[in-house]
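Section: Multi-chain targets

For targets with more than one molecule, the full set of components is provided together so that the structure can be written out for the assembly as a whole rather than chain by chain. Components appear in the order listed by the source. The example entry contains two components.
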Amino acid sequence: MSRSRSVDTETLLKNLRTRSALLRAVRDFFYDGGFIEVETPVKISAPAPEEHIESVKAGQGEFLRTSPELAMKELLSLGVGKMFQIGSAFRAGEFGRKHREEFTILEYYAADWDYRRLAAFTAEMFCRAAETVTGRSVILRGKREIDLRNAEFITVDEAFRKYAGISAFDADRNDTFDELMVLKVEPELGRGGITFLCDYPASRASLARLSASDPRVAERWEVYVDGMELGNAFGELTDGTEQRRRFSQAQAFRRAHGMLEYPEPEAFYRALDRGLPDSGGCAVGFDRLTMLLTGADDISQVRFC
Amino acid sequence: MYSASDLKKGLKIEIDGAPWQITEFEFCKPGKGTALYRCRMKNLITGIGMEKTYRPTDKIDEPNIEEREMYYSYFDGHHYVFSDPNTYEEMAVDASVLGDKAYFLIENSLCNFVIYNDEPIEITLPTFIEKEIVETEPGVRGDTATNVTKPAKIDNGYEIQVPLFINQGDIVKIDTRTGAYAERVSKA
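Its structure, encoded as tokens over all components, is:
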């Protein structure tokens, strides 16, 4: 992708300094929490087959990772209890104010944590990050002050009923879910603090386990501040049979839509068969976190790309 | 046919037989969801705006639009007639397409045409043209203020606002985009 940057050099350098401070603060936060830092391959043979994420080909039978998720779950199955990784991920064809084909992902897993505990941890990390940059947990977006010490949960269905006037399940069934999410729901989230949008319709969380209390939804949340999606988390699916079934559905979707066909992620399946601890996992867009804390409105203002 | 990934600011597209131009464009992608191409656009004939969101699988019609330059030749009593500088082919344009710009046409001036399905939908004149003031109150000598104005007529009867120092017979420059007085070129 070409170098198009909507930023002057002075601002870019200032933002890169902030980014550096953030990287350090985030690393400290994870190390203090007993996480180990890992690195997993960037060039892989089998990306997770997802319906709307396209990988970049890297030569014969190889791809650049769209996220480090499958590899990190293999590590979970080997007994790495708590870990994090910061590195590049690639998603073909994504280019916009908040998207680049190459971006930096901050991904972390904790064995024995449920997705609520993971949310509290994530909120604390955001606060720590903000305090590093501004000295306090309050950030300024436009003219509005947002205190990251305020965190709220809202279910996807509640949010759809409130902001789009339709149940999330109906929107999912009549295929208007993504449009309503972008146009009606997302702009309302994270306006006064951190919003965790949780409990997605089960069809929209292929790597998450179903909620024990409501099987129509999966243990998934997305975290928002000021209308911007910053991260996605799952209560991880640990059932190998169910995971194979969901991936083969996604593969069928990809075939039907002429998308790249991927080899079966055999090593990941073996990890599930070996046994995955009940875990929570989350991926945060590190570039977006930097955007949020620098006031940047384009990703090119916070990463050299 | 365009596919959704061709969409960008400035692109002209066709929807239900009408030409539109994209004025704002944003790539969106809700987590794990489909990519969405969010467009604000302007109807190139009516000027009406609207917002529309496309998915990657959408196909979008390409309008039959060309841009070319034409010389203004003459008014035939009903239409304004332009001619192609290379082929001398003539094109008669209805007054409604030009609106007030018709008052600023000058013989042999080169205009830019946007043509949709062989019909001109937008005509851009040279940005500045010169016209003689044929009627205005006498000028106030020495008053060089430009913020106080008075009405004045150009040769075809079109009325503009000019500074007080302008006299009948003066040649003035007019901005054809706004129809406003720009500066005095020469005195009567």
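The helical segments of chain B are 95-98.
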